[in-house]
Write a structure and sequence with these properties.
Elements (H helix, E strand, L loop, with lengths): L4 E6 L2 E7 L16 H16 L3 H14 L4 H13 L3 H14 L4 H14 L2 H14 L4 H13 L3 H14 L4 H13 L3 H14 L4 H13 L3 H14 L4 H13 L3 H14 L5 H12 L3 H14 L4 H13 L3 H17 L3 H15 L1
Antiparallel strand pairs: 1-2
Helix pairs in contact: 1-2, 2-3, 3-4, 3-5, 4-5, 5-6, 6-7, 7-8, 8-9, 9-10, 9-11, 10-11, 11-12, 12-13, 13-14, 13-15, 14-15, 15-16, 16-17, 17-18, 17-19, 18-19
């Protein structure tokens, strides 16, 4: 069980997506009734399976507990949170909405609901959920961080700036707030203010690799690649396995024609963060550009292993397989891409997948 403050790389700058709640402690959750012993046993089993990362088993245990105690908001919250771990956001939202209806002061349910909506791309609903949480816990900086992220995603940069400034007033040593306020300032084109803020952050947390990476990103956005690389190299002095710095250095080396050096940097980035698909995409594209189709296929499969719902990866894999005259496999992946694009209403991707299918079946 973890308190997951999920970070994503957007233009290779750290931005918080949302806060998932700590798994509640259910030691005293069961109310006095004839089923109390059964509920307690199921909750304990759910906790144990969760700790072992057996998410399906934990969900089943909590579902059984919920059947015995259907009005328990915290059990509904746990099921919803676990479903987010499976990226089953639609079902998670249903459970978390039930949790908030059962207990309109359940902050963790609102936070998890905001996260599920965020991951589903429903930012207005996410913002509403987070605002409920903030109303209940106005001094919770993590909730405000999530609000700031949603505002940034909605391109409401002025409000996001105010939100992150509020976080810093509340938690003046919160490095994450510095990083994200700097990112918003950079998005607004205020590179000077972003740089000054990152330098303040460096005083708060000296030798923080993410701060130096952010400084490099400001220089990169101002088309100063050599200066940016110098900052990225400083990042690697602090943390040689920093995935984003290795990735960015790889991109610079690739632009300079040093494909061997670029590939090595991408590999370091991939090994440093095995859950990230960004380095694998860089490797796959490099191989594709060099007509190393077999190697590209391997990388696209790795991407799909990490994220089976990546429609772009299925489409690119289908294209690569088609070039190898492996039509059956190509059709299978193109059909999966079509299905995923259709699910997300991606008209451009859907059209491209259907065009490829038509050529493969002709």
């Amino acid at each position: 069980m973890r308190n997951l403050s999920l970070l994503a790389v957007s233009a290779f700058v750290l931005v918080p997506i949302a806060i998932c709640p700590i798994a509640p402690n259910f030691s005293a959750i069961a109310q006095t009734n004839p089923s109390r012993a059964n509920i307690s046993e199921l909750l304990k089993r759910g906790r144990d399976l969760w700790q072992k990362n057996d998410i399906p088993g934990a969900i089943e245990a909590y579902r059984q507990a919920a059947a015995l105690d259907p009005k328990n908001s915290r059990i509904q919250t746990s099921i919803g949170f676990l479903l987010t771990q499976q990226k089953n956001y639609a079902d998670a939202i249903n459970f978390l909405q039930t949790a908030t209806q059962l207990d309109n002061r359940n902050v963790r349910a609102y936070v998890a609901l905001g996260y599920a909506y965020t991951q589903s791309g429903n930012f207005p609903a996410a913002l509403t959920a987070y605002r409920y949480a903030a109303a209940l816990e106005p001094k919770n900086p993590e909730v405000l961080q999530s609000i700031g992220y949603v505002q940034t995603q909605q391109n409401d940069l002025s409000e996001a700036t105010k939100t992150y400034q509020q976080v810093l007033q509340m938690s003046p040593r919160d490095v994450k707030a510095y990083l994200n306020l700097g990112y918003v300032l950079k998005r607004q084109g205020n590179f000077k203010a972003a740089t000054e803020l990152y330098m303040q952050a460096d005083k708060v947390a000296p030798l923080n690799a993410d701060i130096w990476f952010a400084l490099g990103s400001v220089l990169a956005d101002q088309n100063q690649p050599e200066e940016a690389v110098a900052k990225y190299k400083r990042v690697l002095q602090i943390n040689p396995r920093h995935p984003e710095a290795n990735l960015e250095i790889g991109r610079v080396l690739q632009k300079q024609g040093d494909l061997t050096g670029a590939l090595s940097a991408y590999r370091r980035a991939a090994s440093s963060n095995r859950k990230s698909t960004a380095p694998l995409w860089a490797i796959a594209r490099l191989y594709s550009q060099q007509y190393s189709i077999v190697e590209a296929i391997v990388e696209f499969r790795k991407i799909i292993d990490i994220d089976p719902n990546d429609a772009d990866a299925h489409l690119e894999l289908a294209k690569a397989l088609a070039k190898q005259q492996r039509k059956d496999e190509a059709v299978k992946n193109a059909e999966q891409a079509e299905k995923l694009y259709n699910r997300t209403s991606n008209a451009q991707g859907l059209a491209e997948a259907r065009k490829l299918l038509e050529s493969l079946k002709s």
